[in-house]
Amino acid sequence: SDSSSTESLERAHQVLESVWGYDSFRPLQEEAVRDVIHGRDSLVVLPTGGGKSLCYQVPALVRDGMAVVVSPLISLMKDQVDALTNNGVAAALVNSTQTNDQKRETADRIRRGEIKILYLAPERLLTAKTMDFLRGVPISFFAIDEAHCVSNWGHDFRPEYRGLRVLKEQFPNASVHAFTATASQLVRDDIAEQLNLENPHVLVGNFDRPNLTYRMVRNAGKMNQIQHFIQKHPGESGVVYCITRKEVEQTSAALAGTGVRVLPYHAGLSDEERQSNQEAFIQEKVDVIVATVAFGMGIDKSNVRYVIHAGMPKSIEHYQQESGRAGRDGLAAECVLIHGPGDVMSWKRILENGDRNNFDAAMQSLNSMAALCNGVHCRHAALVEYFGQEYDADNCNACDVCLGELDVVEDPITLSQKILSCVVRLKERYGAGHTVKVLTGSRDQKVLQAGHDELSTYGLLSNDGAAAVRTWIDQLISQNHLVSVGEYHSLRLTPSGRELLRGEGQVSLTRVATRSSASNAGRDSW
Ligand code: ADP
Hints:
- By secondary structure, the chain is α/β, with parallel strands linked by helices.
- The protein has helices at residues 2-20, 27-38, 52-62, 74-86, 100-111, 122-125, 128-135, 159-162, 166-170, 185-194, 222-231, 245-257, 271-282, 316-323, 342-352, 359-374, 379-386, 412-425, 432-439, 445-449, 466-478, 495-501, 515-519; strands spanning 42-45, 66-70, 91-93, 117-120, 139-144, 175-180, 201-204, 212-218, 237-241, 262-265, 288-291, 304-309, 333-339, 482-485, 490-493.
- The strands form 3 sheets. It has a 7-stranded parallel sheet with strand order 3-4-2-5-6-1-7, with helices on both faces.
- α1 packs across α2 and α16 (359-374) crosses α21.
- The longest helix has 19 residues, at 2-20.
- The radius of gyration is 26 Å and the shape is elongated.
- Its cofactor is Mg(2+); Zn(2+).
- This is DNA helicase RecQ.
- Belongs to the helicase family. RecQ subfamily.
- GO terms for molecular function: DNA helicase activity; hydrolase activity.
């Protein structure tokens, strides 16, 4: 009834204060807590650090019975259970590192109704034995942490999450609540579908990070660009993300050579070395950590003043998460992404050697990331829109686009027409590299042998240089006027590309930011 649910919500506030010592819920937390108390299935999307755990931990203490939390990582599970136990909450976990005696003891405590929150990995929960056991226990609800793992449209698909759809069927009286930090609309719909959620309430938090300034710049001598940027932040903490371990080693060594206090971090180092490098960064014995994506899980250092990406991440989810490690204290921080045409190809090679079932989804994520890099739309807006939020401000004043740092081409339609007509003259059978050569009038053997120096578009952009023309092709691809198809990545016009060729439609092109032009470009530039 209404009065009892009001009471429960009041209880939730009391619990928040008495157990955690917090005065109030954050706006979305309160709504999320209400759904759990009412037993309405829900999907909660909150950025990292947004406070997802309390959304299920608080109601677990308010509701009768035991809550089951599904979490993929044993180490994170243990941290959570330790923290809860320290706060006096009856929480437990069962995992493979425990002895049979320990497991039995936990089972006994559950039977006696002494446990309010039980943490399990999905593969353990779904064993026949555990399911049988839990059917005999009054379960209040299931909380699924890292719920994007259930979707193979997400960036971290885990097959064992798929089995979780049986929960709704096997525990008809328990509600199911999914939590994730990263989910596009597509992934969100898929999570609800895969978990068989019943009329779920979808709550999406605020993904905007107004204190971060974003810049996406072209690779124009990456090492110099990184050094130049770090020099702007003497003595401040920063993270440099690289795609491969080898790049981490090289970049870290090069920076150390110029006197930067820096250490590397990647999965190829020993556990001890990783641990000690991470500690050195947290305790500010070094300023900079150069890392692969392996760095950052569960790291809570609030005064990171900048994050540099020395290459494109493989998804916007990754970018949001990694760049989001800057400025957690709410003070101004800078995020710079250095990208080049080779990045997509490098990732594609890596993905081709990975799980083929995920290949299409992974390529789609990669292409969205490339479109963001090559786009000329406000970065704050582009990021939150990707996560399904609207962005209100006309000018964020905190990205290269809104700060007017991009060197925008004045007549982009005419320039696009030159490029697109060259693609048509090449019968849409050649890739970007060859097209660039033709447009810039290269004397390359392949161009001459094919007789492409005879084409009317040969040398049409010879004053602009190959790098610039390459960028424009990438920009036309990311704005969906060109696509690159097939084994040879042949360029083809899309329907909107054909319109553009007729002088219709919209396009926006920018010039390559060389280091010197970028460093003249405005107050916070580099
Ligand atoms: P997430 O799982 O979404 O990344 P956490 O649940 O780990 O985030 O919460 C992030 C931090 O915010 C934690 O230190 C947590 O104690 C704190 N926090 C969460 N909710 C509140 C609140 N209502 N008031 C104050 N601090 C909070």
